Amino acid sequence: MGDTAIFRIAGLTKAFGPNAVLRGVGLDLRAGEVTVLMGANGAGKSTLVKVMSGVHRADRGVMMLGDRPFSPATPAEAMRAGVVTVHQNINDGVVGALDVASNLVLDRLNGAGSGFFFNPRKVRREAREVADRMGLGIDLSAEVTDLPLADRQMVAIARAMAHEPQVMILDEPTSSLSSNEAERLFALIDRLRARGVAILYISHRMSDIRRLADRIVSLRDGAIVGQFDEKPLDYEGAVNAMLGQNLGLHSIDARAAGAPVFSVRDLRIAPGAKPLSMELGAGEVVAVTGLVGVGKTRLAETLFGIHVPLAGSMQLDGRAYAPRTPASAIRDGVFLVAKDRASTGIVPEFNIYENMSLPFLPRFSNMSVTRRRAERQTAREQIADLKIVCRSERDDLATLSGGNQQKVTVARWLTQPSRLLILDEPFQGVDIAARHDIAAKLRESARDRATLVFLTELDEALETADRILVMSENTIVGEHRNADVDMDRLLAEVAGQRLEPAGSV
Amino acid sequence: MDSRTADKTPVETPAEALAQPKDGRSLRELAIRYGFLSLLVGLIIFFSLATRGFTSPQAAVFILQSVSITGILALGVTATLVVGGFDLSIGSIATSSMMAAAYVMVVLEQNALVAVLVCLAIGALVGLINGLIICYMRVPDLLATLGMMFLLIGLQRIPTEGRSIATGMTLPDGSTAEGTFSQAFLALGRHRFDLFMENLVPASVVVLIVLAILIWFFLEYTRFGRMMYAVGSNARAAEFAGAPVKAYRIWAYVISGVFASIGGILLAARLGRGDIASGNNLLLDAVAAALIGFAVLGAAKPNAFGTAIGALFVGVLLQGLTMMNVPYYTQDFVKGAVLVIALIFTFALLGRNAR
Ligand SMILES: Nc1ncnc2c1ncn2[C@@H]1O[C@H](COP(=O)(O)OP(=O)(O)OP(=O)(O)O)[C@@H](O)[C@H]1O
Ligand SMILES: [Mg+2]
């Protein structure tokens, strides 16, 4: 299918006020190929996607679909023309107040030819078809607001797939999916590719990119800086192009723990779960890995006072620690960078400095009057430290790119010293270089506290931690020092098959 | 810092950050920010040219007085809007506290201080109950406060069997009410302070201005106000940041209830009796003022300054039209039109809710 470009972009520019985000992008998408778009956080990927899908209008430049000019005024128009998009912000892709079935066939309900009357049976039937084609194992009558993020993501994707697209755009679709769900998505993409759909795929996950890419295009600062389509694909070259520098090899020397800071004894976090224990020392970064749904988030939130453990005890600095609310955990110096920033992290109507100071307002105020100067100063330091791409600390959070919003939610909890810092999937949506930066920052600032990072991706755990704990079925099933890790044993533990002591050496 | 950030990431110095927005500020942004205030100024200029005496201090004070009670209620309901709630019971809290004040003084023959304290307690208690029902019984805010509104409208009629309260009225047991409104209490509605001129500024206007400044400062500059906005914008994120979300919600309803009861006290003091038929428009006028406030300075969210301007806007418009001899029965239409325009302004121009 060599050079049958069915979607062509040339000279595309887009600015938000004085902020030039796209500076002349040229890009071809070919039928039956997966084009992966790589770029650092804030490079303009999502903005490009929004222009292609009719959310934003380009300032200059042309887009061609087939041999016709394409400039959709609305997302619906783009969709009808066969350009279908799954946006990075999942809640843009689903309607919370409706059930899953209605969401799946929503666009048909609006489309031409649909009758005036709403026929629930027909909706159910069509939704069932779509769901089966996707292998979607979700209760079709559930309300979307009640679904966990991963399920919502699958619904948004299934909804987009239901359109029989010519061009399919996926903006970081796997950032909250488990590997199982991601694999289902990949299988679907394979099928679409075989049918001759042109696919634009955006991700920061190398494993996705390796699995899917036919070509890689690198975007930096709103311009295309590299195209890679010779097999075997030059992944490293693509990463270097998107970063504008070589990413040095990254290895960890596992450090030993200092004085004990936090310990957990015989904690049961869910009914029927085996008790778990652990001990964390000052200066070490400990990763907890395991599949999605094995209780990682439950454990993180239990340590932070959101859930009450069913049994067991915790100790912080030698004293009993039993937080009843996040407020009391924070008072004791236990911080949580929670998963899924959109629902648990960011306050969309606040700007950067207001978001960062949120948990620490008493410290940032004088007789209850907020000290904005101090807030802004702190925010500026964090912006420089974590290289957050923004115009100033007064930018509204909604104008930041996804990865930069994530950096703000991480930075929030680094502004103040803690005794135990818990991070639940802190790398959601951040680019490779930023991931290394954050990991380095965590390790460097870890000296006096205990640090616990929950990471589903094993690679991320190996890149970040001194010690790795493995979770399965709501309890801890394995422990590894991050030096000469026995990968077979680790993978077996992740999969939930404990090797017999005799068999493992 | 490595070379990557040095040449690409636009992290700026504060000076640049301050300089930047200016050249980028488009006409549209200016219109969004200052449109509604300009409209207010334009309206004032128009009325002062078109009518006689519109710009006199007396007229200005009269406008403020005409919106003082609505304005106070509107400031209270702003607090509930900030936490993402709504309070439909404010009008009935105000009239209930008016009736209570009259009952305490006329029937129970107590002094002004007792009357005021009873009213404030009623406001706080009703607000607390609203908050508890909404937070712990999980009744949606509109429904809970709507129910409370009906309840209070009914309740305030029971002690007097549905009649207004005035000195000399016959009580249910056949006796005559001997108490009177104390002079101190009536002064709240009738006393005027000297400012440039003798007897210029009525007490109710002073109360309005003081409360407006208080709640504005509270919402904008204290950590409690900031947290209330966070609760309204993303309650889960606020909770994960350590905020006692339910407590903030409940406090918002208490504030709203207390403000409404202050409005009721001023109403009773102005009327000098407990009039069962007054205060019908309070709820809608107050809500309108708070919603108009969304459009002021392009805030697109509830804010105390906007609410005050919203109330003022309605007052100016109605006073101007009255002085131009526009019939009184068009007033509600005018208010409604202003509200619709303000809402369009907020949501269409600002596009906050547009994707
Ligand atoms: N509505 C907006 N108003 C102002 N600036 C915006 C807006 N949307 C995006 N930007 C800016 O445009 C730049 C590019 O953002 P974009 O979301 O396209 O990045 P991205 O490449 O998708 O990054 P990420 O990997 O973090 O998702 C960012 O600097 C961002 O702050
Ligand atoms: Mg993006």
Output the keywords:
heterodimer, A: 505 residues, alpha/beta, Rossmann fold, 2 domains, six-stranded mixed β-sheet, 18 helices, 32% helix, disordered C terminus, B: 355 residues, mainly alpha, two-stranded antiparallel ribbon, 70% helix, globular, binds adenosine-5'-triphosphate, binds magnesium ion
Structure notes:
The complex is a heterodimer of chains A (about 500) and B (about 350). Chain A is an alpha/beta fold. Chain A has 2 domains: about 170 residues, P-loop containing nucleotide triphosphate hydrolases (Rossmann fold, 3-Layer(aba) Sandwich), CATH 3.40.50; about 240 residues, 3-Layer(aba) Sandwich (Rossmann fold). Helix content of chain A is about 30%, strand content about 25%. In chain A, the strands form 5 sheets. Chain A has a 6-stranded mixed beta sheet, with helices on both faces. In chain A, strands 16-19-20-13-21-22 form a 6-stranded mixed beta sheet, sandwiched between helices. The longest helix of chain A has 16 residues. The radius of gyration of chain A is 24 Å and the shape is globular. The termini of chain A are far apart. The N terminus of chain B is likely disordered. Chain B is globular and about 70 Å long. In chain B, strand 1 and strand 2 form a beta hairpin. The chains are: A alpha/beta (about 500), B mainly alpha (about 350). Chains A and B meet through helix 11, strand 18 and helix 14 of A and helix 1, helix 2, helix 10 and helix 11 of B. Magnesium ion (MG) binds next to helix 1 of chain A.
